[in-house]
Amino acid sequence: xxxxxxxxxxxxxxxxxxxxxxxxxxxxxxxxxxxxxxxxxxxxxxxxxxxxxxxxxxxxxxxxxxxxxxxxxxxxxxxxxxxxxxxxxxxxxxxxxxxxxxxxxxxxxxxxxxxxxxxxxxxxxxxxxxxxxxxxxxxxxxxxxxxxxxxxxxxxxxxxxxxxxxxxxxxxxxxxxxxxxxxxxxxxxxxxxxxxxxxxxxxxxxxxxxxxxxxxxxxxxxxxxxxxxxxxxxxxxxxxxxxxxxxxxxxxxxxxxxxxxxxxxxxxxxxxxxxxxxxxxxxxxxxxxxxxxxxxxxxxxxxxxxxxxxxxxxxxxxxxxxxxxxxxxxxxxxxxxxxxxxxxxxxxxxxxxxxxxxxxxxxxxxxxxxxxxxxxxxxxxxxxxxxxxxxxxxxxxxxxxxxxxxxxxxxxxxxxxxxxxxxxxxxxxxxxxxxxxxxxxxxx
Length: 444
Prior knowledge:
Blueprint: H1 15-18, H2 31-34, H3 41-44, E1 52-55, H4 62-72, E2 76-81, H5 87-104, E3 108-113, H6 120-125, H7 127-131, E4 136-141, H8 145-148, H9 151-156, E5 158-161, H10 167-179, H11 187-190, H12 194-203, H13 208-222, H14 229-237, H15 248-262, H16 266-278, H17 283-298, H18 304-319, H19 325-337, H20 343-357, H21 373-377, H22 419-438
Parallel strand pairs: 1-4, 1-5, 2-3, 3-4
């Protein structure tokens, strides 16, 4: 049984589907999972079939692995897509599984593609049948299961992570498709040179489905003749890099860019910056993140970083893409090379925590303004010492916290960049305050 709709008359199944391996020995890639002694090897040998979740990028073999496991286990295979299916389809699958077991003693594998698209209620719908053995569940997802799936499902299905296929894996898949006469690959694709195959494999970006789709398109463009480099370039130019806005690839790459900047590696930072642009990321999103990095990871160690990030954003607004991207690249390099400090970030978090924990403490009367006679009569502003009237514009011994709250030292400058001098200044001022509060004037 399959959830796939019947093919219309004359419909040609795409090469990516026709080339799907039918036996485990023909599966290429994911050696860390399917190699001898690896976690999925036993299931591909028809032993110990169990519920699992396959998490990985598109075109890396998730559906193929699920089909192979069902085949070697002589199980019914029910394929659903969470994009189109619902609870009704799950119930129908359960009834089919019960019938298959009653009539033939055959187990059933329910394969749910894009399982992260199911909401909690839909995910809960098939859990009882997974638990009682009616179904063996295999889910496929491109999203992080810890965010996309509920805990009840995660506890019943072990997660396995698939990796992007290497260029060598892709090239081997293309060569296997060309060599298999039953797939109907034409003479044009068969004429591809090793260099052209390598170029095609690189352009597929770790996605076997994309590679086979491009091979089929080349076959159609070439007809009965050989594939020209121009044909190859036309097809490759249309290839799309893996970059799902809002998906794991998006957040993984911005995380890598941020960490490269924080780690003072301008070269790696530039690489991830251009990886994101190449994948279709909005440059303005990167501009906003650069502002965050300037405050979070550089702060007062080099205040120029924040100004430069703002200027780069403004330049991009004025020039647009691609000219404005150079200004963003300049900001990336400056931020990566700048002195680093997260002192303001840490101080702000600590102050926020105190503000949340201690409630609405009153502002001390001496720190309140007294714009009216009534407020003055209530001692608003009484005993306040105006800092500019004091030596060095500093009131030694004064506390600007609520009276009920012991003064804190949230901000602890690092010994780098401008904060080196800020730290020296604060240590002097804090020493003078401590001396004044203890009645010792030797610090003046």
